[in-house]
């Protein structure tokens, strides 16, 4: 009986993640399986002392393999039932990643001043993720950069706690589960609307980071 119950829970988790990844694909958002937290260690990967448990892709090939193909997505989560969901940035959208306190201040100002805003997610209650239109790969490379996860874009380096995920970066998407039972969840779920201009929202978020 316990084995059946465990199997059902595993299938439910797989179906939940796979269904969410398919919904992202329907929006045109590629996804890729991520590591997961739980069990007898903080992260499912083999790295000792993983710095981002449950919050990174399962393979270094994620940027090339991320897909919107429903059959590919289903096969991934059949193979890895507990895998979290990774969304590459710099393709359909970029993401501003700020401390939760700053995110709450920004959302309050956004509501009061009717500032255009797109999807917003909570990363385990610690960070807020603001999804904005991507600038992609402009002709003038001086206008943009590759955002590696251990660096900050020059233009926002002086803003405490802010990161701008664009090309060569990714975010962990709802309903992914983090260590200690924390989750990634939508505060404002995605819809089929045009994503907001990143530079307008950057102003609001930069002020919020300074005030937090």
UniProtKB/TrEMBL annotation:
Organism lineage: Bacteria, Bacillati, Actinomycetota, Actinomycetes, Streptosporangiales
Segments forming domain DNA primase/polymerase bifunctional N-terminal: 21-201
Organism superkingdom: Bacteria
SUPFAM superfamilies: Prim-pol domain
Name of this chain's protein: Bifunctional DNA primase/polymerase
Cited InterPro entries: DNA_primase/pol_bifunc_N
């Amino acid at each position: 009986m316990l084995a059946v119950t465990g199997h059902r829970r595993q299938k439910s988790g797989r179906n939940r993640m796979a269904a969410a990844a398919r919904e992202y694909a329907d929006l045109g958002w590629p996804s890729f399986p991520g590591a997961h937290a739980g069990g007898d260690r903080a992260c499912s990967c083999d790295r000792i002392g993983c710095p981002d448990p449950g919050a990174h892709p399962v393979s270094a090939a994620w940027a090339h393999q991320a897909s919107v193909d429903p059959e590919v997505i289903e096969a991934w989560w059949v193979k890895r039932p507990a895998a979290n969901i990774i969304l590459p940035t710099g393709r359909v959208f970029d993401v501003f990643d700020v401390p939760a306190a700053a995110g709450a201040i920004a959302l309050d100002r956004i509501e009061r001043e009717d500032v255009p805003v797109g999807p917003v997610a909570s990363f385990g209650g610690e960070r807020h993720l603001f999804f904005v239109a991507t600038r992609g790969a402009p002709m003038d490379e001086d206008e943009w950069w590759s955002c590696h996860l251990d660096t900050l874009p020059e233009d926002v380096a002086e803003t405490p706690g802010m990161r701008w995920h664009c090309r060569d970066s990714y975010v962990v998407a709802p309903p992914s589960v983090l260590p200690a039972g924390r989750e990634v969840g939508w505060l404002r779920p995605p819809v089929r609307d045009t994503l907001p201009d990143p530079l307008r929202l950057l102003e609001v978020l930069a002020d919020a980071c300074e005030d937090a």
